[in-house]
Amino acid sequence: MYKIFKSYLINLGFIADASVIWISDDNLKSIYSTLNISHNLMLSYPNLIDIINNHTITNIQETYIETKSGLKYNYINEHNNNYLETDTFLLNDIDYYNLKYYINNQRLSVLTFNLGHKIISNEILGSEASKVSQCQLHYSSTSGWYKNLEMSSCSKNAFDLVSQYKLIGLQEMNIKYQDSSIKYLKNLNPYFEFLSSIYLTNCSLLTIFDIRVTGPGILITLSNYNFLSRGIQASWFKKINLLFINLHAPHEIQLKSELECCLKNIERNYGTNINPERIIIVGDFNDDKKELFNDCIFVFGRYARISGVTPNSCCYGDNYKYVGDYIFDTEVTSRYYGFPPDYIRETSLMSDHDPIVMIEDNLL
Known about the structure:
Elements: E1 2-4, H1 6-11, E2 21-23, H2 28-34, H3 39-44, H4 48-53, E3 57-61, E4 64-67, E5 72-77, E6 82-85, H5 96-104, E7 109-114, H6 117-121, H7 129-138, E8 145-146, E9 151-152, H8 153-162, E10 167-174, H9 178-188, E11 192-199, E12 203-210, H10 211-214, E13 218-219, E14 226-227, E15 230-237, E16 242-248, H11 255-270, E17 278-284, E18 296-299, E19 302-306, E20 325-329, E21 335-338, E22 356-360
Parallel strand pairs: 7-10, 16-17
Antiparallel strand pairs: 1-2, 3-4, 4-5, 5-6, 7-22, 8-9, 10-12, 11-12, 13-15, 14-15, 15-16, 17-20, 18-19, 19-20, 21-22
Helix pairs in contact: 8-9
């Protein structure tokens, strides 16, 4: 039997309150139920049992962990997985102290973000002109640029936010700056992979994924597939049976009917070899008329919905009068939906659009 103390669980943020909990070595169901993990997650994380069983903890005292052999280790930094070796023995890669970090980094966190084509290139033009002017004023010492003209400083801020998420759909990536942007993001998270689709000749949709969470992804639509005059891309993640669709919709269309027609064509032309258990659709829907605001999207024989109250996110130049940046999901799970938790519109200088995120609840 493994004994887990109330103070230990509370200290790591697993629970708000609990009595001493005992976990049986020979009863997998009790392990999952004690740690509050659903059956679906159990199937997704079969190695969790090995993680738990490999570390038989007999006592927790303050910040120390004591194994059956009496070796003690002082936990230093959860997020960097650094430990102080107080005896001539190193902890394995995953133990109880970084179990929360490991599991929480396997949960799905999704972000959709229209980066603003002219914001990336730092040009005071078009509908993004007022935001670019604000960025240039704030970063006046470099005239709004970051480093060696690789991207604007505001776009650099946006990429810093992007790096915190596991599955991302970006719209209006400026093709000229795509390579330097990918390089910057790859330095922030070396596990990121990228799928790009061109539209409007100088823009791209960029799907970004943390391969540790999603497994490999492939683009099933053509790299220049269009949604009327704009772009749409569909990516398949076999490991988690997920179809991820990233789009930038045109203005002034019958949005719901046109989009569902486009998705039907994707299913007919590209979806014959996949059988997704879950479908997530993200993007800038340009939903000025709120056609989809309280509605759903029919896709691959099921319905995708927004799982939360969508805030106005478009745009800086219009004083954020409009909704339209959405995340639709066919799966109903407990999650956070809205602006990123640490995002403050007035001070987080990134784009003329606000980012929207969906974060599944802590698994522990």
